[in-house]
Every structure is written in structure tokens, then in C-alpha cells.
Design brief:
Blueprint: H1 16-46, H2 52-77, H3 83-88, E1 90-94, H4 102-118, H5 122-129, H6 137-142, E2 144-148, H7 166-171, E3 173-174, H8 179-191, H9 197-211, E4 215-216, H10 223-252
Helix pairs in contact: 1-2, 2-4, 8-9, 9-10
Length: 254
């Protein structure tokens, strides 16, 4: 996603199954609240605290409160979260990734009466199947979608210098590697652990031969260690270049 300030954000919409699970939790909670409200009204009527006219109006008010007002208020106050969304690790955000307001939450809750409560989620499920981010009808009208808030931990950095290569790295001269080859080197270093041993060895040998003309001196190590060492040296060189650039910019803005 690209924001208005041209900043790329890596946001992940939550899947349809998780959305359905979260909606089911919210659905059960809502019907439990309706049951509790109905029992309360019944007890008040038996005690003579509510007249007949109020008893006719009270169920409608109860339904509007539980199915519309309460969900809209909860999503507004919690920035797009509800009990079901907390359980599945999601929240409702605007299409641009920002936090929703009461208008978005109210539209979602109002249409949710039709597509979630009156049809037990059937309309929401059908619409979600045919939308790229598993959006339901209320999301399409309000301009929102469900964002994933629980993301897996980042993998450990595998671009570190292999043990025993410190001396070589201090004198290594790695010329500018073509961009395409550089991407292949990084991709191999990132996914080598998941590769089949034979394919891993073959890919390492091919990459080592391709990058050899850009490296001096050539260390007496196996192909895979050589590739990992080159990736680590290039990474450290690029980090130093970025740090120097940041220092120059900071000195110019003082």
C-alpha cells in the first residue's frame, strides 16, 4: 500500500476464514446480550415496572442498541477492534490504512444487521469470497477492510559473515555486482535453509561462478560459504554507505 506521502506500507488483510471466525464470536456475544436483555425486560414486566406500551417498544430499542449502536461504539472506541477481531488478530481500518471513525463503524454496523444478523453471515460470506481483501458489503460501502495485526516474527538475519571469514572480509574487494545477480545472491542466502541439499549445492556453485569475477581475492572455501560471505560483505558495505549518507545530510541540515 502506498500512502499519500509516498511511503510503502506492508499491510496484510485478514483471511476470509479468520474473518468468519471473528464474526461468529461477535454473533454469539450479540445473541447472548439479546437473551440477557429479553430476560431483564421479562422480569421488569412481571414486577410491574414496565407498562404494556413500553414493552412493545423496548424490544425494538434493545435490538437497535445491541446490533447497531453497541458494535459501532465498540469499533470506534477501540479503533476497529471487537471481541471477535481481538480473538483472531484483526482490526478494521480504512482502505488507506488509517483508523476508522464513527461514520465507518456506523455504516458497517447498519449493513451488518442485514448481511450478518438477519442472514447469519450468508451475504457477508458470499460477498467476501468475491472481494480481494475478504470485504463484506458493509466494508465496501464504508471504505474499510480487516487488517491482520498478528504477524509472524521476522526471521533471523542470515546475511552475517560465516565463521572464520573475518580475515578475508577485512581485505576483500567486492566490486559492484549487477543488480539482477545481487538479487539472486540475496534470495539464495535467505532461502538456502529450505532448499533440497542437491539443488542448494547446485545453485551455490552457479552463483559462486557468476560472482567470482567481481571478488578479489577468492577465499579457499566451498561455494555456499563463499556466496554467504559475499552477501555479508555487500550488506556491510551498503550499511556503511547509508550511514555516511545520513551523516552528510545531517551535517547539511544543521
Amino acid at each position: 500500500m502506498l500512502t499519500g506521502e509516498a511511503v510503502a506500507l506492508d499491510v496484510q488483510p485478514i483471511g476470509l476464514l479468520l474473518r468468519a471466525a471473528g464474526a461468529a464470536i461477535d454473533l454469539v456475544v450479540s445473541f447472548l446480550l439479546v437473551l440477557a436483555g429479553a430476560l431483564l425486560l421479562s422480569n421488569l414486566a412481571e414486577a410491574g415496572l414496565v407498562d404494556e406500551v413500553s414493552m412493545r417498544i423496548a424490544p425494538i430499542v434493545l435490538m437497535v442498541l445491541i446490533f447497531v449502536i453497541l458494535p459501532a461504539a465498540v469499533e470506534t472506541l477501540t479503533r476497529g477492534r471487537s471481541l471477535g477481531k481481538l480473538a483472531v488478530g484483526g482490526r478494521i481500518v480504512r482502505n488507506d490504512g488509517g483508523a476508522i471513525g464513527f461514520r465507518h463503524a456506523f455504516i458497517r454496523a447498519l449493513l451488518g444487521v442485514l448481511e450478518v444478523y438477519m442472514t447469519l453471515g450468508a451475504i457477508a460470506l458470499v460477498v467476501g469470497i468475491f472481494t480481494p481483501r475478504a470485504q463484506r458489503l458493509g466494508d465496501l460501502v464504508a471504505g474499510t477492510y480487516a487488517e491482520r495485526t498478528r504477524t509472524p516474527a521476522l526471521p533471523p538475519d542470515i546475511r552475517r559473515l560465516p565463521p572464520g571469514m573475518e580475515g578475508w572480509a577485512s581485505i576483500a574487494d567486492v566490486a559492484r555486482v549487477p543488480d539482477r545477480l545481487g538479487r539472486r545472491l540475496s534470495q539464495f542466502a535467505a532461502g538456502a535453509a529450505q532448499m533440497v541439499p542437491a539443488s542448494r549445492a547446485r545453485a551455490a556453485a552457479e552463483l559462486a561462478e557468476e560472482v567470482r569475477p567481481f571478488v578479489a581475492p577468492i577465499p579457499p572455501v566451498d561455494h555456499e560459504t563463499f556466496v554467504h560471505a559475499v552477501v555479508a560483505v555487500r550488506r556491510e558495505r551498503e550499511l556503511r554507505a547509508l550511514a555516511l549518507q545520513a551523516e552528510r545530510v545531517a551535517s547539511l541540515t544543521r
